[in-house]
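Model it.
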Amino acid sequence: MSSRPPHSGLDGAGLMIIDKAAGVTSHDVVASCRKLLKTRRVGHAGTLDPMATGVLVIGVERATKMLGLLSLTTKAYDATIRLGATTDTDDAEGSVLTRTDTSDLDHARIHTEVKPLTGEISQIPARVSAIKVDGQRAHALVREGADFELKARQVTVSRFDVVDIDTVQDGDAVYTDVRVQVECSAGTYIRSLARDLGAELGVGGHLTALRRTRVGPFGLDVARTITELADDPTVSLDIDAAAQFAFAHRNITAEEAESISQGRWLEPIGMAGVYAAIDPEGHTIALLQEKGRRASSVMVVRPATLR
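Modeled.
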């Protein structure tokens, strides 16, 4: 019989911040991480389209339970919008539907028309998306040739800045490429912003490049490529560092740590939202949330059986 100690779920547990390459799916990234880290317990938060690059948050081992609790409600992107052409997917991966010469397009109008697309706006999501319509994904309905409409959603675009404008000659066509920086709420479709900007300008538009630079508190400054991960197959933040980076935290005594690790609750201290409970040794024992007279665990990071 093997004398190897049982796997606790805390060995190698934590978060990886991956800089996803173009042309691969978020699931492909998860598969690569599973292979490199030699574990099946890997998941991701916040899908990126294959054409997009940038920040993808990966949970490993017990930290996969943390993914759904992370506050990833704000996101930031660098993007390129091509004005002068529409596609059936609102991005460069689709088929071109219309073309309009933009050689006479006033660049000042571009700066003007991004303003109505900033703030609290009503946005119709891209048809090729994971949104469900009567139980089916919209992208699947598009492939089937189904006729359907997506309802507009309220989203927040806190920043929509034009960084650069270039005129692009492609054969006989003249397009205008607009580089933008966007900060927005989760659920905002940058493809839809590209489509709507082109519509407002009367020339059509679609997304040609997208790079996510930040999701929640995680930015490109802490991200690694899969190639870099292969050279050093470890998490970016172990489970303690991840909890203390991503959540507010309160210090607890050893007695309180023992209590919460056994599933009991603590006295509330007036902290809002989900926060980490840290023992005297700096270990995260649980993620707590206060309700009424209790601060109860929403995730026990270190149950008594693992301490």
